[in-house]
UniProtKB/TrEMBL annotation, chains A, B:
Entry protein name: TetR/AcrR family transcriptional regulator
Origin organism lineage: Bacteria, Bacillati, Actinomycetota, Actinomycetes, Micrococcales
Superkingdom, natural source: Bacteria
Cited Gene3D superfamilies: Tetracycline Repressor, domain 2
DNA-binding region: 36-55
Residue ranges occupied by any HTH tetR-type domain in the UniProt entry: 13-73
Pfam families recorded: TetR_N (PF00440)
Alphabetical UniProt keywords: DNA-binding
Keyword Cell membrane: no
PANTHER family: HTH-TYPE TRANSCRIPTIONAL REGULATOR RUTR, HTH-TYPE TRANSCRIPTIONAL REPRESSOR BDCR
Family annotation (InterPro entries): Homeodomain-like_sf, HTH-type_TetR-like_transc_reg, HTH_TetR, Tet_transcr_reg_TetR-rel_C_sf
TM stretches of this protein: none
Length: 201, 201
DNA sequence: AACGAGGTACACTGATCTGTAAAGTGTGTT
DNA sequence: AACACACTTTACAGATCAGTGTACCTCGTT
């Protein structure tokens, strides 16, 4: 409930939507501090006045950007999960999370949008709450995927944290390295990790 | 050689040192974009003129900040490794890397300085090369620590990558969460990981 | 005594930053 | 006809940004 409202942007007018999409693209590629509101207005084909009428402040726009980013990520992942054959194992479903990064390289070129935002936003910025909510949602999702068919003896929460940290490390370095080799490597690690788990069934 | 020069700042005058120390503190706490050169000059008790005479540009100063940051991190870690009893296992030595984060909380409050910098710096910024060199040095170090007494059957490089990703994920989230619980958890995961490895000797 | 190096003081440039003021246009609804 | 709404245009405020020019001071070295 709290999380849902934190991760869902308010209803938007057409113009606001265009501003937000433009802001999302620019914020992700160049960072939030590096992009001015004038640039956003200009590139979206709307005016700064509209931007402020709709969003109130650059900080609020940045927070909305993170909400949009979460929404897109979540949708892409759910679509990928839905595409799996019925009865897909927990392992296959968790690996689909990694694939959603390696296969959509354009949207991961600069690493994790949420980590990047947290890196440059002060503690009191409204976007930081969105970042925390997003990360909590990812951990929770991994926990749910793992609890569906895993052995009752395994600690699903701990395993989810392990997979989560591998994922985070790999995605972050996707933004530092020039390629996705760490994502591929992390995927293999998780495959091993969950393979061993299943072997102990 | 290349790496060493990338990670070592040039010799500095006393004033330059004070400017750099001040910049390091402010850049880490608030981000590079968020801190102006006027603030750095003022807080270091020197003038902006001196800053530019010594460093030439803010970009160069930011790159030097990352070099200093790496140097301090490396020294702290070497001291911690030197404090270990002689004949300490690879596991103990790798875990010391994690301890260097959990036990020096002030310098990790905002997560990984290098990841944070990469998040806000454009691809062509000189600091990015320092970030990559630093991360390479960390992976290499882990690989060396692990190869010292591990079983010959294990793939040290792959194990080092695994530990590295857990470390990276945990340190990054140290800057997002309010506590170091993920660092503690990651340390335990590595303990397990290397424990199993030793059990297969 | 001369000189260079490190540093100070301070005014300044030109650009860019977030945010606001004021007045007006077009469209659809009641 | 009246009104709300989304949005426009132009202009501006006030701050801050990185970076420079110039003149001067104080050392230690030669």
């Amino acid at each position: 409930m709290t999380t849902a409202s934190l991760l869902t942007p308010p209803p938007l007018t057409d113009g606001a939507r265009r501003i937000l999409d433009t802001a999302a693209r620019l914020f992700y590629s160049h960072g939030i501090h590096a992009v001015g509101v004038d640039t956003i207005a200009e590139e979206s084909g709307l005016t700064k006045r509209t931007l402020y009428d709709r969003f109130g402040s650059k900080d609020a726009l940045a927070a909305a950007y993170l909400q949009v980013r979460h929404g897109e990520w979540w949708e892409r992942l759910e679509a990928r999960l839905a595409d799996l054959p019925t009865g897909a194992s927990a392992q296959e479903r968790v690996l689909a999370v990694f694939d959603s990064y390696t296969l959509d390289s354009a949207s991961t070129e600069r690493g994790c949008a949420f980590v990047n935002a947290a890196a440059e936003l002060p503690a009191e910025h409204p976007g930081r709450a969105v970042v925390r909510a997003h990360k909590q949602a990812v951990v929770d999702l991994l926990g749910e995927l793992l609890s569906e068919d895993a052995a009752p003896t395994t600690d699903h929460a701990a395993l989810a944290e392990h997979v989560f940290l591998l994922l985070e490390g790999a995605v972050v370095h996707r933004g530092i390295d020039d390629d996705d080799h760490r994502l591929v490597a992390a995927r293999a690690m998780v495959e091993d990790l969950l393979g061993e788990d299943r072997a102990s069934d």
